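Teaching assistant here, posting this on the class forum so everyone can see the example we discussed in section. The complex has two components, and the goal was to see what a joint structure prediction looks like when all of them are supplied at once.
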Amino acid sequence: MWVALLGPVIVLLAHLTPRAILASLSAPGSLGPLAVSIEASAVALGVLVVIGTPLAYLLARERLPAPRLWEAGLLVSLLLPPLVIGLLLVFMVGPATPIGEALSKIHLSATNTFLALVIAEIYEAAPYYVLGAQAAFAAVDRRLEEQAGMLGDPPGRVLRRVSLPLAAPGLAMALATGWARAIGAFGAVIIIAYHPYGLPMQIWVTLDETGLASALPFALVLLVVALPLPLLAYGWSTRARARH
Amino acid sequence: MLELDIEVPRRRFSVAVAFSVGVGERFALFGPSGAGKTTVLEAVAGLVGPQRGSVSLAGQLLWAKADGRRSSTQVPSWRRGVALLRQEPSLFPHLSVQANLTYSRRRSGTADLGRLVNLLDLEGLLDARPSDLSGGQAQRAALARALASDCRALLLDEPYAGLDAALRRQVTALVRDEVDRRAIPAVLVSHELAEAQAFADTLGVIDEGRLLQVGTPHEVVLHPTSRRVAEVVGYQGFVAIDGAIVGVHPERVRLGAHPRMGPVLSGRVVRARPAGTGFEADLSVGGAELTCRLEAGIGSPGATVEITVIDPPMFRPDGSVVSQHREVLA
C-alpha cells in the first residue's frame, strides 16, 4: 500500500538524471518561482494561523452561533474543485468587483500579483488547516480547561497554558497539511495568479513550452522544498503525543 | 458560608435544591447515580448556569437570576475561588506533578504546599508526568492541587474512586482536618453512604433533582422521613404490619424475638451466605423478600426463623413516615 502511494514519487525519481536536473535548474530565472512559492506559502500560512486558529478553537468549543453552518462553509470550499474556487475568486476580488476597486485605490490588485497568489493559496489551504486544527482542539479534554479556570485562569490564559499546548501536536499536523496544500496550490492559482510564477505554475508552463523532461526537475524541487516541514511536524507531533 | 437555592434544567428533570454550608462545615450530598449531585457542584463552581436562583459564598453573590430573566449577577468560575475535585483527577498531562501542584494563581504558600506534599506522600513523584502515576497517586496529586489553590470552598465529586479502603480513610481524615483548619465550607457528593457518613457533619439525600432530607448522617439513616429516603439510604425490605409498612435495614436486624427492641417478624430462609465476619440472609416475610446481616448462621434454605427489626421507621402506604417503632410503643 505504502509503495503504491509512493508510486508517482518513485516514477519521478526514476525519470530524473542529475544532468537533467542541473540543466533545468541552472537556466536563467529558473529558481525565481521557488522563492515566490516559499514566500507566498509562508504568508498564506501565517494568515491561516492568525485567522484560522481562533476560528478552529471557537468551532471546536461550539462558541460560534450556528456552528454547523460554519463547518458546512468549510466543507463546501473543500468540495469545490480548486479551479472553480479560482473562478469564483475572480468574481469576488477581480478588478471589476467592489473589493477589486477598493484594492486598486490603495494600488493593490488581487489578480496576477503576489497578493493574488497568496489569496489563491489561502482559499485552497484554509479548509485543510481549519478542520485539522478544529479536530486538534476538540481532542483536548474540556474538563482540563474547566479545571484550569477553577484554578484561577481566565479563558485567555487557559488557552495559552492548557488548550494550545495540548492541541499542539494536532495543530502541527494541520499546519503541515495546510503548508502542503498552499505550496502545491494550482487550480485557483492558474485562474487568478498566473503571474508571478510559483513552482506549480513553473511546472505547468515548462511542460507546456518545452516538454515533460524539463518540467520534472521542478516537480522534484517542489517536493524537496515542501517536504521538510510536514516531516518535522509529523516527527514532533508523534514525540509530543508519546510524552502526554 | 456557602448558600445556594438553584434550579438547573436537565434532560429528564430539573435539579432544584436549596441548602447552606457553614464555614468549616462538611456537607455530603448523597443519592443514587444520575440524581443531580454533580450538577449541584458544577453550578457552585460556575460550570453550569442555573435557570433561576442564587449562589453566594462568604457573603459574595456568585450567581443570581430570577425566573425567565437574564442573569443579573454572574461571577465567572476563575474568580470564584472554588476548588472542585472530580472522580477523574484531571491533572494536566503536559505538566509534571510539581507544575500541576503550583498551577493555581491563588496558590497558598510554599510551606503549605510542602506540608500537603508530605501529608499526601507525593515527595518522590514531583518530577513525574501524570501518565506515569497510578490512579491513587493521580487522585492524591489532584487533591493536593485543589488544596494548594487556597480555595474559599472545597467541592468533592466522588473523589475517592481510585483509592483503596485504607487510603480512603487516610485521605478523608486529611480533608476533614484541612476543612477545619481553613474554616471553609466543603461539599462532598457520593453514591456510597459510608463515604458520605465518614466525611460529613450534615447529610443531604438527593433523588431526581430534589433534596429529600437533610440532617446529621445518623439522623438521616436511622430516621428517614419518607420511604424513598429509606430506600436510598439502604433499607432493602418493606413489610406490612397492622396497616403500616416497616422499613428493614439489613444491619438493624437481630436474630430471635426481642419485642422491646422492635417488631418481631417470622419468615422463611430463601438463601444465606457468609458476609464479612457474619452472615447475610435473604428471608421471605409475608410475601416480601428482605435481606439481613446477622452475627450467627440461621440454618439452611427453607428453615423458619424469627427476627427482630430494631427500632424501624414506619411508613404509610403513600410512602410518608408514620413514626419510629419506639414512638408507637411509647
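For the discussion questions: Chain B has a mean pLDDT of 87. The longest helix of chain B spans residues 165-182. Think about how each of these relates to the inputs above.
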